[in-house]
């Protein structure tokens, strides 16, 4: 083969590999990331690119993802809870939601770390990779938080090192032995924790020393969101803490007082907290997450409270 033939062969091979990588990337994105209903990326797809004008969204961390059972809350609820989501992440998710022509309330789950933000702890990059090349809001968010890298914009390379993370929910949804139920964005543990397992978690939890802190910059952003969107009701909810976890947050009452003040200050803010110290241990996955039985109980009680406060009118 002459020199021209070698160059031609290399060129054709590179084109073939590039096209194969792009096609594989498109297939993987559709079937294992944003196109998979039980993938966190699908929640981004739903928020940024779909309307759902009658939907009442729920935002928060894994406490929301595992604690709010939509079918027990009522019609047209959807759970956008994501593991480790801080207020900074929730603020990103609220941007497309608040641009929609909607008047439904917005539920936001509250916990003691709500205002704390660590870009590497609170931002799961796998959730956002499928959207970097087509959404400037997400791209800017990652860049601002130091989570954007050049290779993440190259089809065929961007998922390198993360395939296992994406494939896990695929396997879970198809496994008959899996003890996880995915429904309307929620991720629920269907198996009750053993007494020994929960007691071990309780012992570990009781050794912690936790605190609710207010970040002034984050607080300003939150107040601005509330003030500039008077047509939407913001319902802040403290989902259940196991009593062993609740007592490790030494200024728990200060957290409640803060959101009670927001409730009193703004007509479009409602704060809901009811004491769940009496929730039995068989309703818990661990000390900060309910299992499906606890989620159904809590969501049913929350639904009654939402009707009582006339947040839900039907």
Summarize the model shown.
The chain has 314 residues and is α/β, with parallel strands linked by helices. The protein has helices spanning 3-32, 40-49, 62-67, 70-73, 87-99, 119-122, 125-128, 136-144, 163-174, 195-206, 216-227, 243-246, 252-265, 292-308; strands spanning 56-59, 77-79, 106-110, 180-183, 186-189, 234-238, 269-272. The strands form two sheets. Strands 2-1-3-6-7 form a five-stranded parallel beta sheet. The protein has a two-stranded antiparallel sheet with strand order 4-5.
What's the total count of β strands? 7
Q: What proportion of the residues is helical, as a percent range?
A: 40-55%
**Alpha carbon gyration radius:** 22 Å
CATH architecture descriptor text: 3-Layer(aba) Sandwich
Unreliable residue runs: none
Q: How is the biggest beta sheet arranged?
A: 5 strands, parallel
Total of helices: 14
Any idea what the CATH superfamily is called?
Answer: SGNH hydrolase
Shape summary: globular
Q: How far apart, in Å, are the first and last alpha carbons?
A: 77 Å
Written as H for each helix and E for each strand, in order along the chain, the element string is: HHEHHEHEHHHHEEHHEHHEH
**Overall number of domains:** 1
């Amino acid at each position: 083969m002459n020199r021209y033939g070698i160059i031609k062969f290399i060129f054709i091979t590179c084109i073939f590999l590039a096209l194969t990588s792009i096609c594989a990337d498109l297939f993987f994105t559709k079937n294992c990331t944003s196109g998979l209903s039980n993938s966190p990326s699908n929640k981004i797809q739903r928020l940024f690119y779909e309307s759902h004008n009658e939907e009442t969204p729920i935002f928060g961390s894994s406490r929301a993802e595992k604690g709010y059972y939509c079918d027990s809350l009522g019609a047209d609820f959807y759970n956008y809870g994501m593991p480790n989501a801080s207020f900074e992440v929730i603020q990103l998710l609220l941007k497309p939601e608040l641009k929609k022509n909607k008047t439904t309330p917005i539920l936001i789950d509250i916990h003691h770390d709500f205002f704390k933000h660590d870009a590497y702890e609170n931002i799961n990059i796998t959730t956002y990779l499928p959207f970097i090349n087509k959404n400037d809001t997400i791209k800017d968010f990652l860049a601002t938080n130091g989570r954007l890298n050049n290779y993440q914009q190259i089809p065929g390379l961007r998922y390198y090192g993360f395939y296992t993370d994406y494939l896990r929910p695929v396997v879970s949804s198809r496994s008959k032995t899996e003890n996880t139920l995915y429904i309307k964005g929620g991720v629920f543990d269907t198996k009750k924790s053993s007494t020994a397992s929960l007691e071990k978690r309780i012992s570990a939890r009781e050794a912690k020393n936790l605190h609710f802190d207010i970040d002034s910059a984050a607080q300003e952003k939150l107040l601005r969101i509330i003030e500039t969107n008077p047509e939407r009701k913001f319902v802040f909810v403290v989902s259940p803490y196991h009593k062993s976890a609740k007592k490790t947050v030494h200024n728990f009452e200060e957290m409640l007082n803060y959101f009670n003040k927001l409730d009193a200050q703004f007509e479009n803010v409602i704060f809901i907290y009811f004491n769940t110290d009496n929730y039995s241990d068989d309703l818990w996955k661990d000390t900060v997450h309910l299992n499906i039985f606890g989620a159904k109980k809590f969501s049913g009680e929350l639904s009654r409270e939402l009707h009582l406060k006339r947040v839900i009118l039907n």
